[in-house]
Design a protein that fits this description.
six-stranded antiparallel beta barrel, Pyridoxamine 5'-phosphate oxidase-like protein (chains A, B), alpha+beta, homodimer, Split_barrel_FMN-bd (chains A, B), Pnp Oxidase, Chain A, Pyridox_Oxase-rel (chains A, B)
């Protein structure tokens, strides 16, 4: 909890509500002390984060270390929010899982081929609301 | 370089131009395979990233491993940008360095006490422009 009057910790429900309103987040991975950060398209549903991606360095990192961090923020004139979570990322391979992921209806910014789904199951999350 | 017609790699100058237009970025750190991501207020000047922060977990992480990643993005209806860089973060301790950092005029979202300056010197950076 924060002791500053203009910062409030969000409840878990509020945190999921913020995640549900956004489609762009940032995924961070770490392999051998080397850290990477990727902007990603995502959908939040059933208390999981689903990310559509193309084969590349993101997947290579996650195959080595599935412990990831994920962030979303929203900054307005007088109000800002941030959500950070840590969790386990899996590359979805089973048809049932991929069907669930596709049911999110997630589109990507470009209509390019992003055939791989990641699912992040949070192990810790926090959200904060800032007013000024 | 991308082979997709609607994705263009930014030049280094364009990348700094995008960084110069923003004040909120995301800093990722890694210690022992554990990754953290923090939304931060920043200023880009003289080809360095300056971040104002308060004592806390961010600084503890950087004291252990100063190799960080940093990200900024901007998403509009038809155009989006992202910039990702990797670099070495230092906690500024010398008066001259702190004077340089303060000269950026960086404000934080809240007028709270954030007395510590970080300076990130990029070792690799990339920027992309997406149109649809």
């Amino acid at each position: 909890m924060s002791d500053q009057p203009n910062i409030r910790e969000l409840t878990e429900d509020e945190t999921w509500e913020i995640l549900g309103k956004h489609q762009i987040g940032r995924l961070a991975t770490a392999v051998g002390g080397d850290v990477e950060i990727f902007p990603v398209n995502f959908a939040a549903t059933n208390r999981r984060i689903f990310v559509r991606t193309a084969p590349g360095s993101k997947l290579a990192e996650i195959a080595v270390n599935g412990h990831v961090a994920f962030e979303v923020d929203e900054v307005g004139a007088d109000l800002a929010y941030s959500v950070v979570l840590k969790g386990a990322a899996e590359i979805l391979e089973h048809d049932d899982d991929i069907t669930d992921a596709e049911a999110t209806g997630l589109l990507t910014f470009l209509d390019t081929h992003k055939p791989v789904w990641l699912r992040i199951t949070p192990t810790a999350m926090s959200g904060r609301r800032f007013t000024r």
